[in-house]
Design a protein that fits this description.
single chain; 513 residues; mainly alpha; two-stranded antiparallel ribbon; 18 helices; 10 strands; 41% helix; globular
Length: 513
Amino acid sequence: MKKNYIALFALLLLSLVGCSKFLDKNPDSRVELDSPEKIQKLLVNAYPNRTAAVVTEFSSDNIDDIGENNRRTIPFVKELVYWDRDFHEYGARDGLRNLWNDNYSMIYHANIALEAIDRLGGNTPTLQAARGEALTIRAYAHFVLVNLFGKHYNTQTSTTDPGIPYIEEPINDFQAQRPRNTVADVYQRIERDLTQGLELINDSYYKVPKLHFNKKAAQAFAARFFLYYQKWDKAEQMATAVLGETPTTLRNWAAFQPLSGEDPHAKEYTRDDIDANLMLATVNTNATAYIDGASIIGRFSHGEAICLRETFRNEKNIWRPNNYKDKPFERYRTEISKYIYTKYPTYVDNRSQIVLFSTDETLLVRAEARILQQKYAEGVADLKLFTKNYLTSGQEFSQEDIIRHYSDIAYSEYDEHSLLSRATQKKRLYPDFAIDSTQENLLHFLLQCRRLLTLGEGLRWYDIRRYGIEIYRHQLNSEGTAYVKAVLSKDDKRRSLPLPVEVVAAGMQQNDR
């Protein structure tokens, strides 16, 4: 029977409010942590209370501008969609200020726990498990922050690119003038914390493992981290630790077909009693309304035009259209065009539950890592596992099938005079590492699979950054024809989000946009 921990975690996470001001000061709210049990309770508050999905999804190429006369939007979302240089917060629940505060609050709680563990000697099994959890949380929060506010990791410039401050002690007076570590230094410290934490994590320590960094969730995080860090062999190793060589815990997509409503679909997707969901988080977000819903944000959405042009219903997919076990929800009426797979269930007080790591996404991490190591047979085998499980037809595609198919698709382009779009699902890839033609075509397929799998979750933005994918922001005219309204080029500095205005006002170096 499905368990529901939303109400409990909503109450527990309310205590984050008192420790959320990490802009120019961080009030020391430590209590006397004199037992392993108190440390364990403290770490409940060290998990995400916000999600970056709204920021990253609306910044990505998963969104069309349905038309400038469409009134269903808010300034915050419009500025995300068009990557405005002068970005405003508007008090947004999913805004940059809250993302910054939330992740540094996680770090603060983890550091308080680590200090207390050291004070108690740290040599009991419970304290060692708590140390592993705290180190992994600290690594994860810094990973989120550096991938939002710093450039993506690359071997050419990351030793000088500004990242974010890496905080390793429970600072109770966190001045914003603190120097920003470089991206390379942040990644090195994340690897250190994550490697140490992984060795210590013990699932028997948790009462509700799916809401903590259990062993498989931590390994899935490590797989994604090493993929971004361009350590393909370690990414493959970590993903295999989660999945085994032949996964048996991929999502049962057929379970969505009988569902009659949008919220039931989202609740099914975020269930805590299925093996495909490795880790969940309870968050305060407007994603339910902005991404899944349509009444507030109708102007900017994943709608019919982009669905036909590039994603689920695109005739250039290697499989036939509408060949998915999952159940979409579509809305086509005045000022609204949405084609979505709902993933944000509705609970009280703007709370929702989200999937942080899943077996299906981890399988695609391994496939990518294998392709980048030129382990083509193994990478294609993973892609076969994915499509066999995801598609109604259960189709599998050979390496030759994929290469031939993607070689025949034209790259996205547009008429620079009329601005008429000729976009396709195939984007030019400009990673900072070398890829050959075989890798490129396999990666086009891999990136398309991940784009569809994670629609609405914001992960597409990180693929765009890592592969230097240019974004066309399409605006539809009254006939539904797509024109390119704006372009985010591969070298555009707006690929890194601006630091929150209060942080800059307090003295921290702003990103050059």
